Amino acid sequence: MRGIEYFRNISIGQYRAGNSIIHRLTPTTKYLWLLALMIASIASSSYAGALLPLAVALSIGAAAGIGPGFLLRGVKPLIPLLAVAAILQSLFTWPGDESTALLSYGPLAFTAFKARLVLMMFARTLSLMTVIGLFTSVTSEGESVHGIEDLFAPFGRLSGAIARSAHRLALAVGIALRFVPAIVGELEAIAKAQASRGADFGSGRGGPIAKARAYLPLFVPVTVRALERAELLAEAMEARGYTGEGRTRLASYPKQRGEGLARLAAIAVCAASFALDYISRSQR
Amino acid sequence: MAENSNVRKIVVAGVLGALSIALFLTPFGYIPWLAGASLTVMHVPAIIGAVLEGPVVGIVVGGIFGVTALIKAATAPQGPIDAFFVNPLISVLPRLLVGLAAWAVYKAFRGKLTGIAAAVAGIAGSLTNSVLVLGALVAFAAIPPAAAGAVFVANGLIEAALAAVLAAGVVAAWKGIESRGGKARLAKEE
Lengths: 284, 190
Description:
Chain A is mainly α.
């Protein structure tokens, strides 16, 4: 049962506490920046448009005291990706690809069209990775949960239903994050209990069908117990009069000076990326 | 407590979301398969949520799973293929639709045997996951179409069968507990 006990201290993301001007921005502003930079990197079809979010994220990171070394440390595992993608692309052909072959070997050919696909994909992945990494570095778990609610607050003034849905979504995400350690503990406990009865997880023995079948006695009890926990929690919340209406909360995120400007800047950067895209397309 | 109250839906979505995250972060979510590839069951909580509590719960659980995959791909990619999942159109959007598809199929089959309806919902949800994730990978030029087809045959179909068995097992067990009038067993322990 190698490795069953290592999972208690797992975390998602890579929050680095700090008190920089970037850390102090409200979660809403951080979400806006995240969305703006993600849209810019996904929707761009030129290198310049896809790489602008990367440059912006690195500068924001520098202002937050998070160096490019930390943000870009995921790049090293990305380099084999380029090779793997290039090999995959060489093995198969794209319908309608009639560009010149840069390299060819028998029926295999690496064409200019494929090279562009691989490089664009790499640029986009690099930008997204840095942008998401930056967001999780400067936004704590609590902030990201509350931010979901705050992000929809302007729409909530138009309709109570939107505000309620946003509050419920934030609550569900909050509960999910709180319950992860308990569920991981449950998985561990039941895996051990089944192993002591002779079940076999993770070792090399047995065919694939046997492995899949061995999974049932782990998955079903863990899920059923999770649902039991949910039932208990829901009952406890209802017993305390929780309805989801008119909730207030302890944590508040006062607007910093220049917050409005920061939000406008996010939209401007997104627009700039599209402009770069347009320029480089018209030049081609 | 009222069946299908809003509080219950929120909490079930949260707890199944936690299960999805837990499966994603520990090796329990992967089942070793031929040639070093693994099968995954991390989308099954979304299917179960959709079957037990409706489409919105399925979508929320799928979304929590998708965003976890997105963050993990950006902060701690484990292999080259992982890195593609920093694109939310690959990692999040298909997972939102897993629960929706499972719920629609479950609804069409409801009234027949619950276990069978849940199994069919499991197949539908799992195929939605495979087809849309692979489709998105092709659309973003991460892999060529023929490679996606090969992965679908090698992994997608088996995952669908596995999801069917697991969804049917959990739903039958849970409905069984409910219909016997037994309250949650944890309630007696604590």
